[in-house]
UniProtKB/TrEMBL annotation:
Signal peptide: none annotated. This is Dolichyl-phosphate-mannose-protein mannosyltransferase. It is found in: Cell membrane. Keywords: Cell membrane, Glycosyltransferase, Membrane, Transferase, Transmembrane, Transmembrane helix. GO terms for biological process: lipopolysaccharide biosynthetic process.
Amino acid sequence: MQKFIGNTKEVVYLTLTTLIAIFIRLWWIINIPTRQVFDFETYHDIATNIYLGLGHTYLGEPIAFQGMAYPYALGYVFRIVGSNSILIAKLFNLMLSTLTLILFYFILKKLTNNKRTIFIGYTILALLPNYIAYNNVVGTEVFAAFNLALIIFLQLYNFDNKFRYPMLGIAIGVAALTKPIFLAYPVVATTSYWLKHKQFKEPLFKLVILTLVMTITIAPWTYRNYKRFGRFIPVSYNGGYVFFLNNNANNTHGGWMPIPDAAMSVETRERVNEILQYGARSEKLAHELDPLLQSEAIKWIKANPIQYAKLGIIRLHTTFYGGVWDIDAWTMNELRERQPENRLTEYERNMRFFRSVTDSIIHILSTLTFGYIIINIKPIILSFFKRERYINSSVSIPILNMLFFIAVYFVFEGQARYNFPLLFLMVASSVLFIEKLRG
């Protein structure tokens, strides 16, 4: 272990920090009550159906509203354990969260040689409230963060390319089956490699291999969707649905809104009502909505580009400077109702204090991350036009990945919990920015 980590003191420090991180996560899971609501309840229902041998179904029907990788993985964990208990899902999160933390350490070692930076970054992520609290939720957040950390780890560590590129392609494929935005990720990985080496053949070969392996990984699910729904659906059919709800004339906050409240043409409204059987059918099962609402969103955006840009900026602010209201809403939403009436005032005061601290942490990380992007964006742009200018991984990996997600959130949807998969990159960017300022 010392060969990969360092001297005995470093091994002891990392081991103790990791054990403390595991203990705090486990304590939160056991002591902080929460209900699984909305998407989180749906994920548990689908995973339960997989556990029971009913396949990837919801309310008795096949579904592909969201990515399938997480509910499938959870469903098979349920099968192995022999129970669909929510506690099992939380312990699965705990395992993935711990693995993400370990991967993050090795990622930091490739991004900097400064031990102080590495250990500060590792400690911040180990104790980050978001990464502790979301172990309590049956959702994709912890799973997606682990996927992204694994993808970046495989980009940074060199070994036999006959195995490395296919493994990276599979990891990207699994990430795409979790969140379809990763279908475009081979371009991000290839660009980062090209900026560092400025070769032509190798990045092109890498792009082809990654795209091919990713496509092979998702192909069985795409074929299943074609058989079930009669049209080409690579991963899920909620893209147009989400795109529209976040971008229509009645949207003022850039986030999700109930479909009856969204602005649409009379013809589209009537067609939506027919598809949903006037409220009798779940929107999550109505795959026919996707192309219809996507077309409606594109029409509105073309006619209102300035309003669309305003919504995009609001989305970014909500994602990176919206605080951590999501921790209260999703990871501890039963805690308040379990308080005795004579302790509610004290509880509210404690929660406001908790929010003050945790909001400040996210705001600081976001500010330092954007600072790191700003001071490095010019060298990256110049590198595209100057063959002799190289960009090392400590710059390209955090920034290209952050810019990729920023672009997605600007276009589609933003909310506080959407920063979760990026938090380890934000911690890395923050400590690297401070290291650069000190230097």
